[in-house]
Amino acid sequence: MKSPDTQKNNVDSEAITGMLKRIIAENGRDHVWGYAIAIICLILVALSTAYIAYIMKWVIDKAFVDRNLIDAWLICGSIFAVFVARGFAGYFQSVILSKIGNNIIARYQRRIYSHLMTLSVGFFSEARSAQLAAQISQNVSGIRDVMNLTITSTARDLLTFVSLVGVMIFQDPVLSIAFVVIAPPLFLALRYISKRLRSATREAIVLNSHVLGAMQETIQGISIVKAFTMENELESKINKLITAAEHRQNRIARLSERNGPLMESVAGFVIASLFAYAAYRSINDSVSPGVFFSFATSLLLAYDPARRLAKLQVQLERAVVNARMIYELLDMEPRQRDLPDAKPLVVTQARIEFRGVGFAYGSDAVLDDVSFVAEGGQTTALVGPSGAGKSTVINLIPRFHDPKEGSIFIDGQDIRQITKQSLRQHLAYVSQQPYLFEGTIRDNIRYGRPDATNAEIEEAARHAYAHDFIMAQPQGYDTPVGENGVTLSGGQRQRLSIARALVRNAPILLLDEATSALDTESEAAVQKALDEAMSGRTVVVIAHRLSTVVRAEKIVVMQNGRVVEEGNHETLAEADNGLYARLNNLQRPVASGNSRK
Ligand code: ADP
After folding, report:
1. Which residues line ligand 1 (CB under 6 A)?
2. What is the distance in A from the centroid of ligand 1 to the CA of 349?
């Protein structure tokens, strides 16, 4: 999600109505029956409230004026019955609406998750992942709130209010007119407050997600934070953010509660005037006390729904602002769709060819006229200084990004013309930082190929020299790993990710060798696992180990986004003044100890 811009702060009422329509149309359709029952229950609640106000006239007149005990008892019986009905109707509508609300949240979470999967890798490197996650969880509830607020306030509050006003007019039309005069200025005052609340709410959401994002970044990068003793700077940065968010929240509280004193004062005035008028009419015109009692009850009962209706716009806007962010995300077009006539990839030799490939992440060119061939079944090592564009080359093969110029072919097929899914099915990728997902060891290997049998998983683990340490774990293959699981060493994690690539059994292996030093034993195990993974496949490897480079059939030397030399270890090492020869000389003394660049 992009950072908010000023234009988004001006959520005009047209946009709000548009968003409301969309939310109601999308969700209303799927829950028609649930909402219908909830609305019936809400209507029952509203009508029974009005009935209670109306019947007060009869209670008072029968019991205290006519002194008719039987009638009074009958009326009281009906009041009891109506309260019971109102209780049940209230219960059912609340349970139904909560159920639908939870379902809405679940469905949007699923929708967002699967939508995120369709967005290109480029989106995720632009978006701040921590901020994104925080915003999503905060904003999905906006959609539920829009639905529930709309339903409860129209079906219950508005109807209750209207029927109570009906009772009031029925009992004393003159008095009722007085209220019609008071209402409009009150409404205008509330509108003014709600306008200011809107922009404050949006700012608060953005600030909060900055705070959460900054915290998550610190947690993820804690070793860097400590190593560079960045604690103080980060702390003062986050302190500023937290203070800003706190002040914004205070402002929201002030603004949204500003309705309170206003409404209370008006209510006090209205009730006091009512009783003064009632006393006057009872003394002068001898109007029955039941009429006033019923009128007063209606008025008191109307206060609550009126207050909720007054707050409705504010709440609805807050919910719509939240929901809007969700829709901004959902409306984002996946950037690389398959072409309409895309075909599945047919692999014969798994020969990869880069032909005149140019690429830029933004405006700065990162690759310039890169051409080379990775022959089928052979290992091609990419070497060169950091920033030369080696990772970018690797990332173009699974189409994480598309080249800006030139093309990439696999067995003569332009990868832009084939479906992304079939392309990626023929690729296995082992990254520098082995990533383990929430789940068991078995699950993590199986992500390589979901239909792999347990036997195949074990075989892959053996080939990746991982079986023994897996069996030593408390629950063997069923030991949970990931964020909440057991802690594995760097070498063990690498071997698991190699097992994941092996079980995939793809003809092409993309490999970013780890630069981080492992202890000698792990290093040897990882190396053996890699040898196993590389044999018989087309391998494109970002090589950091001299041994890998020496054994590669082809070496592609890159510098500043261009291919500067090509050959094998013998020919390149001999070349006078070549970049590889220089790198090789630099590396030699190190390579014998710990093969790092
Ligand atoms: P290498 O793997 O050889 O170190 P990379 O392919 O990672 O090189 O990077 C090549 C250039 O592209 C570098 O200048 C790097 O800063 C830039 N770069 C890499 N990834 C991104 C990205 N996601 N967005 C913007 N620039 C990037």
Report:
1. 125, 361, 366, 384, 386-392
2. 30
